[in-house]
Amino acid sequence: MLTVRNLRVRYGRSVAALHGLDLDVPDDGVLAVLGSNGAGKSTLLRTLSGTLRMHRGEVVEGEVRYGDRRIDRLDPAAIVGLGIVGVPEGRQIFARMSVDENLRAGGIGARSAAERAEAKQRVHELFPVLAERAGQRAGLLSGGEQQMLAIGRALMSSPRLLLLDEPSLGLAPKIVERIAATIREIHAQGTAVVLVEQNAVMALAVADTAVVLEVGSVALAGSAAELAGSEEVQRLYLGGH
Ligand code: ATP
């Protein structure tokens, strides 16, 4: 279980990006994090993955625990070592490297060659296109395929908790559906997921619980079904009136 308690993050002297955020992600859960631009979604994910602390001048207070371990003071490599792996917004694949080299880069932390091979087979089953295009430069893949590669690369280290930052961004509806189905499959195979999305329809269809962030704290929380039915979510995120 991932637990976040009273998390406060400030960038230098600017106003707080998160102020007093609480949330829980069970080991078998998919949590959707919704919210408009600037609500603090990326800041939350960067804090969870430890990448925030690589920058300078941020102030982080509060507590993030994974199981019984405190992780809010760990560096990104230590957090990956615990099985928490992020897929950053905008994918950030290695465009000049081949598809297969990208996957191999994701598997560097694997304990053995056998574990790496097994992870790659799972990724290829999930995304056959990554096997078909193994030797091709990653930068030549379509946007959707690049998102699949970014997720596949994260899966190469067999994470227990996957952090996804807007995987549907800029993708056609059909591809978004495909990504959504894959997230369900990854979850069914035993990986918990934190899914940050502007696409509330997709996120609430995939998640079992959800939170809505508003200016740095949780404005609404509940089951995905409850939130999908809430008037406020309907009005703000689902195009209802
Ligand atoms: P978006 O959907 O637009 O990415 P978000 O919900 O992910 O938004 P964040 O990117 O976490 O929101 O931003 C939260 C707040 O923190 C915003 O007010 C933003 O301007 C500020 N912020 C984010 N990154 C930095 C930074 N590196 N330095 C200073 N302020 C920042």
TrEMBL record:
Record bears the keyword Metal-binding: no
CDD domains, A to Z: ABC_TM1139_LivF_branched
Gene Ontology molecular function: any one: branched-chain amino acid transmembrane transporter activity
Gene3D superfamilies: P-loop containing nucleotide triphosphate hydrolases
Pfam short name (any one): ABC_tran
One Gene Ontology biological process: L-amino acid transport
SMART domains, alphabetized: AAA (SM00382)
Keywords: Amino-acid transport, ATP-binding, Nucleotide-binding, Transport
Domain of life, source organism: Bacteria
Entry keyword annotation includes Nucleotide-binding: yes
Family that this chain belongs to: Belongs to the ABC transporter superfamily.
Protein name as catalogued: ABC transporter ATP-binding protein
Gene source species: Prauserella muralis
Taxonomic placement: Bacteria, Bacillati, Actinomycetota, Actinomycetes, Pseudonocardiales
